[in-house]
């Protein structure tokens, strides 16, 4: 009997976004341009392979800038940093570049603008995520207003804000659908609350979530390539599961559960915004001997967003 044909389906868009491209470029151009050691505060983007490759090229990753010597070149990760970290860097004698994604910087500026206008601010985001720590740290220390972090409906229920002027901002890599619900709950509790026209979730997160929904409808299993620390990759796995499709978050082919894939006839692949395309191609090659014979792209990748490098590093 002829073996049933097994198919690999690729989501589009997938993988690197403009902010990740820019952050990695900043690190690589710094390595090329300077003789000094290059230090990066926090993982420049949340991906194991990207970090390992940069370490091999000589980058040293540190948790805090007090670990960076004076004669070094320092880089802040794509997730952004609080004002106090930036101030500390300015007071030190090293050269630094800010690889914060411009879409995260946009949220930082919203926080500062709301505080200037006398508004209390609600930040929707994940406690402990570096982007959230950075955004909370952009609320001016001398402001009379407050900033509150909420993660879920329970946090919103517990909120006690007495101000008549309230605004919300969001982390850039949240679940689009869940955030919509949380914003609606805030609007019910505080009808005067204002915010961006929709939310601050970035184009890359939105597009990858739209694509994984479509992928989940067409495949028995969805593999999301991304690291456990990557917020947007975790959201892709959760979304595929919410659509009723078994999903696995994998760093690379070594994390693949072969037994699961043996019995499926279609497997979808997507990649978080910090996951390199190289791993997608390695996973495809790994699947061929398991009987997967065809590869189909779900749609064209129409993303064309790019962000400029700091002028000192531009060619
Ligand atoms: S995921 Fe969005 S916010 Fe994060 S670096 Fe990419 S474009 Fe910027």
Report on this structure.
The chain is an alpha/beta fold. It is 38% helix and 18% strand. The strands form three sheets. Strands 10-9-11-1-12 form a five-stranded parallel beta sheet, with helices on both faces. Iron/sulfur cluster (SF4) binds at residues 17-20, 78, 101, 103-104, 172-173, 202, 204-205, 232, 273.
Q: What is the fold's blueprint, element by element?
A:
Blueprint: E1 6-10, H1 18-33, E2 38-41, H2 48-56, E3 60-62, E4 73-76, H3 83-91, E5 95-98, H4 102-116, E6 120-124, H5 130-136, E7 147-150, H6 153-158, E8 166-170, H7 176-189, H8 203-218, E9 221-225, H9 231-242, E10 246-250, H10 258-262, E11 266-271, H11 277-287, E12 292-297
Parallel strand pairs: 1-11, 1-12, 2-3, 2-4, 4-5, 6-7, 6-8, 9-10, 9-11
Helix pairs in contact: 4-5, 8-9
The site of iron/sulfur cluster has 15 residues, from helix 1, helix 4 and helix 8.
């Amino acid at each position: 009997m002829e073996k049933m044909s097994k198919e690999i389906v690729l989501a589009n868009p997938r993988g690197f976004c403009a902010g990740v491209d820019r952050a990695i470029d900043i690190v690589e151009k710094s390595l090329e341009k300077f003789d000094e050691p290059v230090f990066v505060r926090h993982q420049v983007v949340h991906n194991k392979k990207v970090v390992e490759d940069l370490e091999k090229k000589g980058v040293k990753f540190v948790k805090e800038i007090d670990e960076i010597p004076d004669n070094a070149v320092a880089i802040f990760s794509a997730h952004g940093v609080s004002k106090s970290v930036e101030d500390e860097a300015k007071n030190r004698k090293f050269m630094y570049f800010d690889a914060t994604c411009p879409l995260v910087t946009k949220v930082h500026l919203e926080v500062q603008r709301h505080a200037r206008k006398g508004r209390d601010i609600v930040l929707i985001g994940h406690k402990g995520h570096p982007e959230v720590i950075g955004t909370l740290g952009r609320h001016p220390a001398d402001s009379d207003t407050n900033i509150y972090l909420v993660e879920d409906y329970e946090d919103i229920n517990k909120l006690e804000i007495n101000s008549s002027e309230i605004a919300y901002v969001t982390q850039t890599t949240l679940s689009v659908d869940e955030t919509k619900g949380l914003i609606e709950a805030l609007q019910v509790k505080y009808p005067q609350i204002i915010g961006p026209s929709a939310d601050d979730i970035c184009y890359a997160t939105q597009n990858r979530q739209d694509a994984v929904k479509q992928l989940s409808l067409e495949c028995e299993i969805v593999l999301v390539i991304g690291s456990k620390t990557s917020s947007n990759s975790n959201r892709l796995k959760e979304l595929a599961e919410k659509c009723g499709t078994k999903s696995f978050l994998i760093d690379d082919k070594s994390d693949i559960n072969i037994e699961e894939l043996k019995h499926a006839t279609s497997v979808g692949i997507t990649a978080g915004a910090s996951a390199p395309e190289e791993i997608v191609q390695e996973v495809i090659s790994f699947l061929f001997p398991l009987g997967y014979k065809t590869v189909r792209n779900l749609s064209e990748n129409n993303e064309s967003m790019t962000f400029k490098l700091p002028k000192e590093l531009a060619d």
